[in-house]
Amino acid sequence: MYLNSTRRVAFGAVLVVGALLAGACGDSDDESTTTTTEATDAAAADAPKVVVSTTWVGAIAKMAGATDITVVAPSNIQHPPDYDPKASDLAALSDADYVVLAGFEGFADRMTEAAGSDAEVLTITPDYAPDKVAAEADKLAEAWGTTEVADENVEHYTEHYEEDSAALQETTSKEPQVVVAQAF
């Protein structure tokens, strides 16, 4: 029983991350995303420059409506708090309007200070559950004035999350799944 629960959690995490990324990206074929060049250029000029600590935090920032996002810790890093900042990270911070952290990255506060940035630092709690993702995206969207975009993106994410959760339940209920994990 415990093994089956572990398998479901692992598969769930994989599917949910995919749903979050798909939800954050939106659907480019949707008529509601079609805009004129002038409107896009104006929005880009007004968009805050956001530096995020990790790709997961970046996905939530994108869901909240940020369009100019720089990720500090690369996606292939196994443990973001251990990331060693580079000079290019400091350069990105120097003209950032916002720095968004998960709160557990020891490097992020030091980088903001070292870069001399006067960016506003926002801390969010990354999670997979739609209600928690919505709360964090809403917090960011309120700061950036992108509430409408965030609402649409959160709705899209929630739909994908529910669909993928149902698919996961169906898949794992039919036959045992093999999951390999390592505890550190």
Protein architecture, described:
- The protein is flat.
- Helix 1 packs across helix 3.
- It is built from 7 helices and 4 strands, in the order ααβαβαβαβαα.
- It is an alpha/beta fold and 184 residues long.
- The longest helix has 28 residues.
- Helix 3 links the parallel strand 1 and strand 2.
- The protein has a 4-stranded parallel sheet, covered by helices on one side.
- The two termini are 23 Å apart.
Summarize the structure.
Helix content is 57%, strand content 9%. The protein has 184 residues and is of the alpha/beta class.
Which structural class do the helices and strands define? alpha/beta
- Distance linking N and C termini: 23 Å
Helix content: 55-70%
Parts with pLDDT < 50 across at least 5 consecutive residues: 6-11, 13-17, 19-43
Key structural traits:
184 residues; alpha/beta; four-stranded parallel sheet; 7 helices; flat
Task: List the topology elements.
Layout: H1 2-25, H2 37-46, E1 49-52, H3 55-64, E2 68-71, H4 87-94, E3 98-101, H5 106-115, E4 120-123, H6 130-144, H7 147-174
Parallel strand pairs: 1-2, 1-3, 3-4
Helix pairs in contact: 1-3, 1-7, 3-6, 4-5, 6-7
